[in-house]
Write a structure and sequence with these properties.
The protein has about 140 residues and is α+β, with helices and mostly antiparallel strands. It contains six helices and five strands; from the N terminus they run E-E-E-E-H-E-H-H-H-H-H.
Length: about 140
């Protein structure tokens, strides 16, 4: 069982979201129950900061990601746990997410916990259409 600290996108939020109580933008949840695991997935999909509560702070994890991005070696999902890869993918742009997911898919034993979320991750990292973009074509 791991306890997670959740950071809401709106730092002043106090209330309940996905069954988790927040105070000043921070809440806690464990992965010991099915509702807890569902809440964690919800938070990851919706841009909340998710980090193990008894490990680094959110700021320290962000600094580590930045430092890792500045290293010469590309992020290798095979060197990380499923949870760490999903956390990493939640903070990268579309091209990097595609590269990491392709690397996972080409592994000798791709992990279903990552590969099953491919479409969801790529949709979340897809570049937004420019404002005023009319995808329906010209008006008559």
């Amino acid at each position: 069982m791991t306890r997670y600290q959740i950071e809401a996108p709106v730092r002043s939020f106090s209330g309940e979201s996905a069954g988790v109580q927040f105070s000043k933008g921070t809440g806690y949840v464990t992965d010991a129950t099915k509702p807890g695991r569902a809440a964690l997935e919800y938070f990851r999909r919706h841009g909340y900061g998710v980090a193990p509560a008894d490990e680094d702070t959110v700021e320290e994890r962000v600094q580590a990601l930045v430092a890792g991005a500045q290293s010469t070696a590309p992020y290798d999902p095979a060197e990380h746990s499923v949870e760490d890869v999903l956390t990493y993918l939640a903070g990268v742009e579309h091209d990097e997410a595609t590269r990491v997911l392709d690397a996972e898919m080409s592994a000798k034993k791709p992990r279903v916990g990552i590969t099953s979320k491919r479409d969801e991750i790529l949709a979340a990292t897809a570049p937004a259409a420019p404002a005023g973009d009319d995808t329906k074509g010209p008006k008559a």
